[in-house]
Amino acid sequence: MVLADPAWTVAVSPSVLLYDPAPALSQLAWVDRNGKVLQLVGDPAPFGFTNMSPDGSRVVVTVSTNTAIPVSPLWMLDTQRGPRNRFVADGGNTSPVWSPDGQTVLFGSDKGLTRMATSGVGDPDVVYPFPRRINPTDWSRRGFVLFNQVGLGTEPFDRSTEMNIMMLRVTRDGKPAGDATPYLQKPGAQSYAHFSPDGGWVAYEESASGQSEVFIDTFPERHSAIQISTNGGFGARWNPRGGEVFYRSPAGKLMAVSLKMDRNSAEVSTPRELFMLPVSTLAANGSQYDVSADGNRFLIQAPVKKAPLELITNWQTLLK
User: How large is the C-alpha radius of gyration of the chain?
Assistant: First the structure.
């Protein structure tokens, strides 16, 4: 018996197999600050992580193949014309981030922190080996990379282990220029950190009491974390022009917070709703949207209507 690839099993019994012939598809789309669709980009696909180049012309995406097979190729997609080309073919790859000059992408692989030239020339290069996958989340103009890390890598994997935010100084082409050290390490889970445009602040999410909230703090030294979300929040991204942070609410809304900042302090406005943000089921974590250079458009993943589930009776006889 051969199922469509990808095929996701939904339910199984000795006599009945119910499966999804394809994972959830989404369509990349440009929308304005009111959520109005301005342009659809490329063809629908089971997109996971996305990250847009500094100039907004390209986006690196992961495309799922099958939940039972840990393979997530990286693809490069033109954000205006839509063509999608394979960028990194092999491995379980996640969480791509661009260098400030747009020449290099760092991503998490099953071997650690890995880099690849955006020209596509050469092979992926593991620059920070780690025994389990780590997810880079941002790369600053000051030469630092932030990434999520669970544990020290020497202990048995435990999903309940708390996640920390690590920082690593790197060269312009993504080579480590020192050892990774904790930026934020304390009880609870801290993750998905992103730099302000000047690299002097970080926005991140923290789940200390079961509900995720968005905080900002200075970088590289932390002074005093400021909570900017109310009633839950995650998936923070800065406005590239500065003075504003966006995040997703638990209710599915894209929120915006205005900031008046100096080197060590910030005044925070009350969060305001921009629009309901449709999200694919494959993009449940992190931000899964990107902000244009002028802060007035967003590249989002809009869910596409799925095909119906398929049912096979007496499926075990087909294995003989």
Answer: 20
* Contacts for 56 with CB less than 8 Å, ≥ 6 apart: 79, 290, 292, 293
Instruction: Name the residue with higher pLDDT: 287 or 186.
Output: 186
pTM: 0.84
Q: Is residue 243 part of a domain?
A: yes
**Residue that has been written with the tokens 């006599």 in this structure:** 15
Distance CA 19, CA 46 (A): 16
Token output for 279: 């999200």
CATH number of the domain residue 259 falls in: 2.120.10.30
Residue 314 belongs to a domain: no
Q: Name the phi and psi angles at 290, rounded to 5.
A: -130, 155
Domain membership flag for residue 308: no
**H helical segments located in the chain:** none
140 vs 89, residue with greater confidence: 140
Residue that is written with structure tokens 């990808």 in the block: 6
Ordered DSSP codes for 59-109: EEEEE--BTTB--B-EEEEETTT--EEEEE-SSB-EEEEE-TTSSEEEEEE
Provide the domain count of the chain.
1
Structural domain boundaries enclosing 164: 25-303
Tokens of 7: 């095929």
102-155 tens-digit pLDDT? 999 999 888 889 999 999 888 999 999 887 678 899 999 999 999 987 655 544
State the pLDDT at residue 68: 43
Element (H, E) at 96: strand 94-98
Q: Do the strands 189-195 and 201-207 form a parallel or antiparallel pair, or are they unpaired?
A: antiparallel
Residue 276 has pLDDT above 50, yes or no: yes
Q: Note every long-range contact of 74-79, with CB atoms under 8 Å and residues 24 or more positions apart, other chains counting.
A: 74/105, 74/107, 74/116, 76/118, 76/120, 77/28, 77/41, 77/42, 78/41, 78/42, 79/28, 79/30, 79/41, 79/52, 79/299
**Within a domain: 135:** yes
Two structure tokens written together for 12: 């199984």
How high is the pLDDT of residue 312?
A: 67
CA–CA separation, 254 vs 32, rounded Å?
12
